[in-house]
What does this fold into?
Amino acid sequence: MLIDSHCHLNYKGLIEDQHNVLERARAAGVGLMLNIATRESEWDAVLTTALNAPDVWATVGIHPHEADEHPHVDTAKLIERAAHPRVVGIGETGLDYYYDHSDRQRQQRSFRSHIAASRDTGLPLIVHTRDAEDDTIAILRDEMTHGAFSGVIHCFTASGAFADTAMELGFYISISGIVTFKNARDLQATAARLPLDRLLIETDSPFLAPVPHRGKPCEPAYVADTAHFLANLRGETVDQLAQATSANFRTLFSKVEGAS
It folds into this structure.
């Protein structure tokens, strides 16, 4: 069984055909999907999808792009919504200095609010980071001094050194379809050496469709293509990779296991 640890089932490109998207994922061997929230206005829809499909779970969070528009979403609000049985993670959150769609200080405040919610609830943190490695690590390190929390660096594209530091802090690393791209040599080198017990896979659908689906809306079924590529890259069988990444997901997102 494969698990898509990060998808956006309620985004344009998937929502119009969501029933068939889910059916195609199941046919491809995807046993669980984590439907990720990025803004408050979509929390209810993300949760409804999880309520309607037993193999879909939900998160609550504010993407760093949305930090300017969500100053009112604080730790208390995240904790309140995370109490729902189908909500199993906090995020996605983090820092994005590539686009700077939100003020960097507001991004950092939002990130820390999410970390506090993760710490309080015991739910893992889903971290987005782009062109912000130093500040992301600095905040994670600082917040760890206030109490431990767990999480995943999603859609990993950062440096190998960043991966090593994140794993030292107890984080998992999630690999998306980007690893299949021809120009992703540095990412491939890092993905090839990541410890199997710290690895997750994802689609980030409807974005970043892997080879051979480039140019199409990505969907959870395509995590199988990423798994095949990654297993070959690492010298493992697909079954080995699937079993390990699924076990890692259940370890990190332990609320899924407790509710099963």
The longest helix spans residues 104-121. The first strand starts at residue 2 and ends at 7.
